[in-house]
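Before a computer can learn anything about folding, someone has to put a protein's shape into writing. The outcome of that step, for a single protein, is printed below:
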Amino acid sequence: MFGNITDVPGVKVGHRENKEGITGCTVLVVEKGAVCGVDVRGSAPGTRETDALDPINEIDRVHAICLAGGSAFGLDAATGVMQFLEEQGIGVDAGVAKIPIVPSAVLFDLFIGDPHARPTALMGYEAAQAAQVGSFPNGNVGAGYGATVGKLAGPEFAMKGGLGSASYAGKDGLVAGSIVAVNAVGDVKDPTTRKILAGARDTHSGQWVDCCAYLEQHAQSEALAGTNTTIGVVAMNAKLTKAEAKKIAQLTQNALARTIYPVHTMLDGDTIFVLGTGDQSYALDYLGQLATKVMEEAILAGIKAAERLADVESYTSIQKTST
């Protein structure tokens, strides 16, 4: 196993970055289609095609998911993904054309790079074209390239976020995988020790600000609306209905609650997609437990692999200076 979401049969992943602009996108391709559900828990989301995933609506399979930086501008990357899939003959057969279904979610990463550099349709196309099964790095990659965390006291206290992925082999052939771009307004903590791994930090003193304590003390945030968001995907080779996929997406949000403080705020747009690629049924609570577990691991992997970028410290950089 590769230890990432491509361990789930039927899932391929590709990334593209604009390293000068400090932004990027990550594309998950499911060529044969997958049942998909979504849960949007944050109050400042940037999404595309999520209404189609409502269990009461007709479309029941998607062909890719695009995660991107660039705030709402980054939704344009999904257009390139659609173009690539159409060229491959992948999509819903509408008689006169095959229409790829590509839900998308974006995060705000305009603070540390060029605010006029955003993921483009070309970047989405290239990420989809590059999608494959295999190893890829965590940290400053794809949709997590320009991600930051710990902005509640103001962006000057932020540390580097990043992209993380993980997988887990369960019972009876089940494989669950996750991928997430961590760009939260809050701090990211170790769920076991509750120690901050990355978050609001005073670079002069080297002390943690602690976003929850700051919010309690000042009764307000210094972050701007819509400038955060953690977005991710869980995939599993299980047989799911759209309603089941949506419920698992809701349960998966517990992983964010266990690692990000505060979470699901008015300043975040936290969005989780769930894909079912298999034909074997499992107990829903079992699937929800594994989805939560593997998402939690992906969040930690993304934070622990992130590297210092544009003078923004990271988990790895402060570990180096403290040893």
User: Anything to note?
Assistant: The chain has one domain: 5-322. Helices lie at 77-87, 121-130, 211-218, 242-259, 284-305, 315-322.
